[in-house]
Amino acid sequence: MRILVVEDEKRIADFLGRGLESAGYSVDIAPDGQSALDMVHAADYDLITLDMMLPDMDGLKVLEKIRNRKTNPPVLILSARGAVEDRVKGLELGADDYLTKPFAFVELLARVRVLLRRGQPTPEKLTVGDLSLDCIRRKVVRAGDNIDLAPKEFSILEYLMRNKGRPLSRTMIVEHVWDMDYDGLTNIVDVYIRHLRSKVDDQYPAKMIHTVRGVGYMLELPEMRNDKPNP
Amino acid sequence: MKFSGHIFKGLRFRLALSYTLFFAILLAGFGFVLRGMLRGVIETTVQGLLDEEWAACKGFLRLDGNGKPQWVYDPNDKEEAAIVERLRLIYMIADEKGEVVESSEVYREMGFQSPAVIARVLGESKPSYAFQKNGRDQVFLVRQGTLSEPGGRFFVALGRNFTPSLQVINEFSNAYFGALPLVTLTAAFLGWMLARRAIEPLKEVAGQMAQVTGSNLSLRVPPRGSRDELDHMIESYNRMVERLEKSFQQIRQFSTDVSHELRTPITVVRGQLEVAMMTAKGEGELREAIEAALVDIDRLSQLVRALLNLAKAEGGQLELQVQPLDLAALVREVVGELEIAAVDRGVELRMTLPRTSIIEGDRIQIERLLYNLIDNGIKYTREGGYVEVLVAQQIEPAKILLEIRDNGEGIPAEHLPHLFDRFYRVPGKPAAAQRGLGLGLSFVAWIVKAHQGEIQVKSEVGRGTAFEVVFPLPSTEATTPREYGNQRETAGRHTNP
After folding, report:
1. Residue where one domain finishes, among candidates B124, B143, B166
2. Do A12 and B275 touch (CB under 8 A)?
3. Please, which residues bridge with residue B483 across strands?
4. Which of A129, B132, B168, B169 is the most exposed place for a label (fewest CB within 10 A)?
5. Which among B448, B442, B438, B441 has a CA at the least distance from the CA of B470?
6. What is the DSSP string of A68-104?
């Protein structure tokens, strides 16, 4: 998987490169908008992280030009401008995700993993071990037992199962399930996860919903735990 | 914020009320004056009639030694007879002792003049007039005069009934003052309507003004085109809103800039540490990451301190310790301290200074100004270049000139107007590693302003940049600490070519 980091602040580009490489991705760095466009033109990238304030042009301009090309890698905006309008504008122009500086690197990594999975076909029926979830009929079965879930609990479980083996941050879960900016209220996620665990995990020997320290939650079969997460 | 209607009702009411009151007082006063004039005219007329009768009297009346009157006329002449008849109706004659010699019936009813009055009249050369009443509320105007006859001097009084004249005056008064309430009422109504016409546009404009709020400061109230006081007010208001909008924009821009300037180093610190935790092999790499983070944290705290200082200064909270100061000596000192940095960059520092040059200023701030400008020059000058500091005294008008110029890369003209803006950096240069906080020149501009000076920058790409600062000469007084913050508007300005 190849990632292009568009970032003019050298030290940010440095740690992004090192961090992403250590997570198993190959990384190129573009220090300004023009070189970013040149590099997108020259090579196929699986994902682009894009700074909004570049010395030669606005990040939104770069985004527009990338979107006009045939290859269409997911774009994750990294911006020091945190304004809601900026975020909305970026997402409207076709960015796939938006992170405000300063951000936790694990958060960035979690988002990168989810974004890279996009584009793969999404099955209507998800199965992890003895747990299965039917997206159409909205039915959840574990070890043959029907499990009754509230709508939000269902959405969280579906999101976890679709991204099995990838840690999801609380903010990501809030953004995905509540579809809004719930900044600061991420405690709500912990409450829902507790409910979900009591219904899905507690009566069964193999626990699937795991807490990932410093990030959030991840759904995985216990015996897969020691494997490195597959990027 | 909406003006409630009753304030305008109040204003309208007060306008109408004062108008009505004024009108009523004017009208009543005018009535009194008119009445007085009317009475005066009538009195003069009657006095004239009495004068004529007096003249006739002199022709027809003869008095013997005792003052006994004899009317000399032709009884066959009907006209003469009528005149004498008329004369004899209201009259009285008294001798020099004040004793009544002769009088008519009508005169007796209203009483005679006292001997004192008679004596006074006899002593005067001119006749006098007096009002006298009888018991039936009739008023008479009496002409008192002296008639000199061979038999002696006699007091003669001739009267005319003044009652009908008084009636005319009273009738006029009644009609006039009777109509006054009605007229006043009409005036009040008209005043009320007029006041509405006067206030209506005011109300309208107030409504439009109320629509200009913090969130749509770009809105303006259109002038009505009448070029009157209201238009003048609208223009003043619009100018005020414009100033407000400008400072709002500046504040918004500033907070955006600050958040950007703070977010970037925080991102770096956080990311470096996190990635080091994930990837570092051994203590050495961890230590390296921590050291890098500390450098960034240093920079962050510098930034925060500088921001606080600038905010304090521009908010008028920084008190300057103004005292006489030798600028030339200070330049020598600062240049000495920056020498190492200059040598390190291969830049030569030059000075052209008078022996002393006294200005009035805050030592710390002036030092900061010199540091910023000279350090800037060093940063933007290539190896082998020079930075020169000049101080000179100008005689007419008396000023101290400070110039810091270099033969460095210069600044493209389009960046010059923004040079003193906070966080404004000429893109690209110098390398990020030695990039400043972007606040130095803002602070310099403030320091110059606070010292009532002016600053200009001239630059040519490839040839160098020159900052010219002008300080006023120290006055004899004012050596005590003063606050300069609140003089920002009027104190010196920096002009950007």
Report:
1. B166
2. no
3. B319
4. B168
5. B448
6. TSSS---EEEEES---HHHHHHHHHTT-SEEEESS--
| pTM of the model as a whole | 0.57
Q: Is residue B193 included in any domain, yes or no?
A: no
Out of A82, A83, A104, name the one closest to residue B274 (CB): A104
Domain that holds residue B249: 229-314
> Cβ(B357)–Cβ(B331) under 8 Å?
no
State the distance between the two ends of chain A, measured CA to CA, in whole angstroms.
8
The secondary structure of residue B396, as a DSSP letter, is T
Is B270–A16 a contact, with Cβ atoms under 8 angstroms apart? no
Treating both helix axes as pointing N-terminal to C-terminal, what angle do A170-177 and A151-162 enclose, rounded to 10 degrees? 120
- Best of B252, B257, B274 to substitute, by most chain A Cβ atoms within 10 angstroms, is B274
Cβ-contact A173, A216 below 8 angstroms: yes
The span from the CA of A25 to the CA of A1, in Å, is: 5
pLDDT band at B171 (very low <50, low <70, confident <90, very high): very high
For B26-71, the pLDDT digits (tens) are 999 999 999 999 999 999 999 999 888 888 888 888 877 666 778 8
Q: Give the CATH number of the domain where residue B284 resides.
A: 1.10.287
The answer to whether the CB atoms of A104 and B275 lie below 8 A apart is no
- A13: helix, strand or coil: helix
d(CA A102, CA A99): 8
User: Which runs of E-coded beta strand occur in B332-423?
Assistant: 348-352, 358-362, 386-394, 399-406
**Residue pairs between chains A and B whose CB atoms are closer than 8 Å:** 66
Q: Say if residue B126's pLDDT is above 80.
A: yes
The answer to whether the Cβ–Cβ distance between A11 and B296 falls below 8 Å is yes
Q: CB-CB: which of A55, A83, A104 is closest to B270?
A: A104
Give the mutation candidate from A7, A15, A18 for the B interface (greatest B CB count, under 10 A): A15
Bridge partners of B495, per DSSP, are B456
CA B83 to CA B86: how far, in whole Å? Answer: 5
**Pair (B128, B267) in one structural domain:** no
Cβ pair A3, A25 in contact under 8 A: yes
Residues present in chain B in total: 497
Domain boundary among B166, B189, B216: B166
Question: Chain A window 151-190: which residues touch B at a Cβ cutoff of 8 Å?
Answer: none
Supply B15's token pair: 């306008």
Torsion over CA of A113, A117, A122 and A127, rounded to 10 degrees? Answer: -50
Rounded to whole angstroms, the Cα distance separating B123 from B255 reads 102
Read off the tokens for B12.
């309208």
In B68-162, at which residue ranges do the beta strands (DSSP E only) sit? 69-71, 91-94, 100-103, 128-133, 139-149, 152-161
pLDDT higher than threshold 70 for residue B391: yes
Indicate whether B190 belongs to any domain: no
CB contact under 8 A, B279 and A53: no
Cα of first residue to Cα of last residue in chain B, in angstroms, is 42
Chosen for mutation from A9, A20, A105, A213 (greatest number of chain B CBs closer than 10 Å) is A105
